[in-house]
Amino acid sequence: MANLGIVIPAAGQGKRMGAGYNKQFLSLLGQPILAHTVRIFEESDFVSEIVIVGAEGDIAVIEEIVTQQRFKKVVAICIGGASRQDSVRAGVRALSSAIQRIVVHDGARPLLTLEVFHRFIEETKEYPAAVMGIPVKDTIKEIDSIGNILATLPRDSLRAVQTPQIFDREKLEEAHNRAASSGYCGTDDASLLEWMGYPVQMAEGMQGNLKITTPEDLLLAEMILENRQRADSRDGSSV
């Protein structure tokens, strides 16, 4: 099996959620959102190390979640930086030198399945960098600063990007270090490699792999998980 390291940035406070604290500590079917996310990789034979990156004031809560859930693959819980980019960079540094292939996954994406994750790992094993993406359903228009429409973009060539994203460690570290020294801020980790001119492969994503950002997202996530549990129960009872 692959020797993957997972970096989970979990420092965002999620102001749009309106909870008044880190949204990843909110309960999703009785467990913190973050616990659902970490468990995906805890249960994967592809993964040997997990690093969680959080805000300084959240470290104790994250440690408590890891202890309560008995996650064995979490090798570090480290303090993030001023931006997500800084946090991922800190998480990469916390992985052992044995890890040469790194996956970055949002702490607020708890609905990824092991089946889809393993498919992604297999499909992208020959690529130095790859991301998940799904086709864009809505018509996308480019506008200027005052709202005038400049162009209607062709949907066939557009993808909404998700995590996980996977990278060769050497290239990811190079991109982060170069961006930090240059003051460049990318929209995600893949954009840093694109900025440096490295090719990034797009792999098929997962429609249900939503990022929980608003209260409506949390309700939808609960519905998705409940439907999965019912389906699993039916499958188990038919064996």
Automatic annotation (TrEMBL):
The record marks 16, 23 as: Transition state stabilizer. The record marks 155, 211 as: Positions MEP for the nucleophilic attack. Its EC number is 2.7.7.60. PANTHER family: 2-C-METHYL-D-ERYTHRITOL 4-PHOSPHATE CYTIDYLYLTRANSFERASE, CHLOROPLASTIC (PTHR32125). It comes from Desulfosporosinus orientis (strain ATCC 19365 / DSM 765 / NCIMB 8382 / VKM B-1628 / Singapore I). It catalyses: 2-C-methyl-D-erythritol 4-phosphate + CTP + H(+) = 4-CDP-2-C-methyl-D-erythritol + diphosphate. Catalyzes the formation of 4-diphosphocytidyl-2-C-methyl-D-erythritol from CTP and 2-C-methyl-D-erythritol 4-phosphate (MEP). SUPFAM superfamilies: Nucleotide-diphospho-sugar transferases (SSF53448). Belongs to the IspD/TarI cytidylyltransferase family. IspD subfamily. Pathway: Isoprenoid biosynthesis; isopentenyl diphosphate biosynthesis via DXP pathway; isopentenyl diphosphate from 1-deoxy-D-xylulose 5-phosphate: step 2/6. GO terms for biological process: isopentenyl diphosphate biosynthetic process, methylerythritol 4-phosphate pathway. Keywords: Isoprene biosynthesis, Nucleotidyltransferase, Transferase. Pfam families: IspD. GO terms for molecular function: 2-C-methyl-D-erythritol 4-phosphate cytidylyltransferase activity. This is 2-C-methyl-D-erythritol 4-phosphate cytidylyltransferase.
